[in-house]
Specification:
Layout: H1 13-22, H2 31-38, E1 42-43, E2 48-49, H3 52-64, H4 77-95, E3 99-101, H5 103-108, H6 112-116, E4 124-128, H7 153-163, E5 167-171, H8 174-177, E6 188-193, H9 200-205, E7 209-210, H10 211-217, E8 224-227, H11 232-244, E9 257-261, H12 283-297, H13 306-321, E10 330-335, H14 339-342, H15 348-353, E11 358-364, H16 371-381, E12 385-388, H17 389-394, E13 410-413, E14 420-422, E15 429-432, H18 434-439, H19 444-458, H20 466-475, E16 479-482, H21 485-493, E17 498-505, E18 512-518, H22 520-544, H23 560-565, E19 578-586, H24 591-597, E20 602-604, E21 611-619, H25 636-649, E22 658-661, H26 669-675, E23 682-687, E24 698-700, H27 703-711, H28 717-724
Parallel strand pairs: 4-5, 5-10, 6-7, 6-9, 8-9, 10-11, 11-12, 15-16, 22-23
Antiparallel strand pairs: 1-2, 3-15, 12-23, 13-14, 17-18, 19-21, 19-24, 20-21
Helix pairs in contact: 1-4, 3-4, 7-11, 7-13, 11-12, 12-13, 16-26, 19-22, 24-28
Length: about 750
């Protein structure tokens, strides 16, 4: 992205003051607390974190100024005026919490970090694990040419995006893994560190060697030596050296001794500028490098398996998590007939060591019919999920019929499964809360149009990787989502979208099935909103002189963002009509005294040191309606049918849904997967756990317990917080256990 010119769009203080007087944000019961601890950035010039109006100003200005017409040599004043008016509408829409961009945009948009790392505006990415060239990217190991295929490249991409806070889906299907050459060389890895490093002893404990002692008996001229700079890129390149030295095609000098010098890596607890968070020190990296080298050395003379390739990705994910606030969101996509991949988490030692770092799914087509073993594994392990790449390549919305190769380059998906992606491509999300938007008087067509234009501008960010720049320019893919779907449909139409079932037969097998009946009013409404998004994209694409987006709509699982407005998450049903929602805080978080003063129950986390758990009593919208259903009592069949409805009439990408099932519904999993194999692009399931776990994030309660807990609460947390802190708060408070998506798969911010 070019530097902003004098014609850049900004929102005046007078305008923001007017909006604050006219619009009341639709905070959910824990919305403001979630915002303050998750998305409010530190303002050094004011000695405090942002307030909501400041966050929305930053986000809207950061986005609106991505419009490429503002970076031309001669900017049309009318364009500036039009975009200023659009910025005002966007500000009102987001400030009132009728809609929001993704959590990543709430955190990054409008910051200097956005200028340096445009990737950070996108939640998640996909990469195929096979030898690829780095191209003209911000990372290119010095021993490679831009066009040299390297086994390390997909792992470097993965490592880089994870450390920037993004999630990564990666494919280890057989057609990719078979392209990786034999492991040629055994590499002797030596990690060294200087005595002056504050991480010296901890690093020695992890397997490092004293640098001076090593230099007494060795010369760096005889080995491949790399001194890591104290940067994200340094970590990535160190791992690239290690991987590529094992293969003759990327080891030109034939050396088999690698020395990695960690002396410059900042110590544990040091602040990370830009994205935020704290450093872990070099220790997790040292452990990862030793583990990956050991794995590769054990495969000399052989090919890597899909399990090996996944293990390397999981070891990277584990390293990113260790010691700082990021959640490593990974999805490994394997072949449906790869039994070793499907069962790899049954090795409990490796599961607890690193294999927990990814959700695992298998790629299928509509001809796949072996759902029995998959369903059995789901009942025991909650995995694998199912991703139908054939449908994604050849269909948008199901109602629009076969569109051969409409998305021909799709190879996988993001970790939450709502966006099918080509190699190197990111998801690009914005969600409208139609239930809230309707209450606040918005025309829904206009709300979705504003979201469409917001996401389109994100595709003009300054992307770091050539593979991403190329695919983004070609596809301009966006993902306009809606959350609070159950709330909206029940409020507007008085019932759920599935009104019943009729007897039918499977079109291929002739088996008897129950075909869902959808409320035609909901069908008409959702179809109209989809067409409004497509129309808005075409109009804006014409104005910008770029391609229309290859696909436009989705349903993301939501999570943290849905909590802001207090709506049901994505297409999911509320977990319960009444529940305790638990949020974890670092024990030094300045929000805790305010919560306690207002009567919220706060107690130490039984699982993690230096962490406190706060309890929030929650009542779902329409909890007392006779047509209300929750995840605890809605049938597995209705959840499948609802996902299919949205895939048919709304989403031309995919629909993320974690279907919850009761113990007595397990035998329905395989038949329902089979029934919807021509409609649903991705499927994942988990058993409904209720309140089986101590301090569970969500615990169902009855109405009386809810009312009793509400009676204990007094005062407004925001007001008390401001009074306790004299309208100031502390810098450097870290987040604990927050996710952008309901299932915990997407990134922290």
């Amino acid at each position: 992205m070019q530097a902003m010119k004098l014609s850049s769009v900004s929102l005046s203080d007078e305008f923001r003051k007017q909006v604050k007087e006219e619009v009341t944000p639709h905070w959910g019961e824990l919305g403001w607390v979630t915002y303050k601890r998750t998305y409010a950035r530190w303002l050094p010039e004011k000695g405090r974190t942002e307030n909501w109006d400041e966050t929305v100003k930053r986000v809207v200005e950061g986005n609106i100024n991505l419009d490429p017409r503002l970076h031309e040599d001669n900017v049309d004043p009318q364009v500036v005026d039009d975009l200023t008016e659009e910025a005002k509408k966007l500000y009102k829409l987001i400030y009132g919490l009728s809609a929001t961009p993704s959590g990543r945009n709430l955190w990054i948009s409008g910051t200097s970090y956005q200028d340096r790392n445009g990737d950070a505006l996108n939640n998640c990415w996909f990469i195929a694990v096979r030898p690829q060239s780095y191209g003209h990217s911000h990372i290119l190991p010095e021993y490679l040419q831009p066009d040299t295929p390297a086994v390390s490249m997909p792992y470097s991409f993965m490592f880089d995006q994870l450390m920037k806070g993004g999630g990564v889906g990666f494919s280890v299907t057989k057609d990719n893994i078979h392209k990786i050459p034999l492991v040629d060389k055994k590499i002797d890895l030596k990690v060294i560190i200087d005595k002056d490093s504050k991480s010296y002893q901890d690093s020695l404990d992890m397997g490092a060697t004293d640098k001076d002692e090593w230099l007494k008996n060795h010369s760096i001229k005889d080995v491949r030596y790399y001194r890591l700079p104290d940067t994200r890129e340094g970590w990535v390149v160190a791992n690239a050296h290690l991987i590529d030295m094992h293969f003759n095609g990327t080891n030109a000098d034939g050396k088999t001794d690698l020395v990695l010098d960690m002396s410059d890596i900042r110590e544990r607890g040091a602040k990370i500028k830009g994205f935020g968070g704290t450093a872990s020190g070099p220790m997790p990296l040292i452990e990862m490098l030793i583990d990956i080298n050991s794995l590769l050395n054990s495969r000399v003379g052989r090919h890597l398996s899909s399990v090996d390739a996944t293990d390397i990705g999981n070891l990277i994910g584990k390293t990113v998590v260790a010691g700082n606030v990021r959640r490593s969101a990974e999805l490994a996509l394997g072949s449906a007939d790869d039994e070793d991949f499907i069962t790899m988490k049954q090795d409990k030692d490796k599961l607890y060591h690193h294999r927990w770092a990814s959700n695992n799914s298998v790629a299928v087509d509509s001809e796949f019919d072996n759902y029995g073993p998959v369903a059995d594994s789901i009942q025991h392990n909650g995995e694998p999920g199912i991703v139908n790449l054939e449908l994604s390549k050849n269909y948008g919305r199901k109602i629009d019929g076969l569109q051969k190769d409409i998305d021909a380059n799709v190879e996988g998906t993001n970790p939450c499964g709502e966006i099918s992606l080509a190699n190197g491509e990111p998801c690009n999300l914005f969600e409208v809360f139609p239930y809230v938007a309707s209450q606040q008087g918005w025309d829904l067509d206009e709300a979705f149009t504003l979201g469409t234009r917001f996401s389109k501008r994100v595709t003009f960010s300054n992307y770091d990787w050539e593979v991403s720049r190329n695919v983004i320019e070609n596809n301009r893919r966006i993902g306009i989502s809606m959350s609070g779907i159950q709330d909206w449909i029940l409020a507007k139409f008085g019932n759920r979208v599935v009104t019943g079932y009729e007897d039918a037969k499977d079109p291929e097998t002739g088996e008897a099935i129950k075909k869902p009946i959808y409320d035609p009013r909901v069908v008409k409404e959702v179809d109209g909103l989809y067409k409004a998004v497509v129309r808005a994209d075409k109009d804006y694409s014409d104005a910008l002189g770029c391609k229309p987006s290859i696909k436009h709509t989705t349903v993301k699982p939501s999570g943290t963002v849905a909590k802001l407005a207090g709506v049901s998450e994505g297409m999911h049903f509320h977990y319960a009509g009444y529940l305790i929602q638990r949020i974890r805080f670092q024990d030094s978080d300045p929000l805790l005294p305010a919560l306690k003063a207002c009567g919220y129950h706060v107690e130490p986390d039984v699982y993690t040191k230096s962490t406190m758990v706060a309890e929030f009593p929650i009542r779902a919208s329409h909890a007392d309606s006779e047509n209300f259903a929750s995840a605890g009592n809605v049938s597995i069949a209705e959840q499948f049918a609802t996902q299919a409805f949205l895939q048919t009439y709304w989403s031309d990408n995919a629909v993320s849904c974690t279907v919850t099932f009761q113990p007595d519904e397990g035998d329905q999993i395989a038949p329902l997967m089979r029934q919807y194999r021509f409609t649903t692009k991705s499927t994942s399931l988990l058993p409904y756990v209720g309140n089986e776990f101590k301090q569970a994030p969500k615990e169902p309660i009855d109405e009386k317990t809810y009312e009793d807990k509400v009676m204990e609460i007094h005062g407004d947390v925001a007001t008390v917080f401001a009074k306790q802190n004299d309208n100031h708060d502390k810098k450097g408070i870290e987040l604990v256990d927050q996710t952008d998506c309901a299932g915990g798969a997407c990134p922290v911010k």
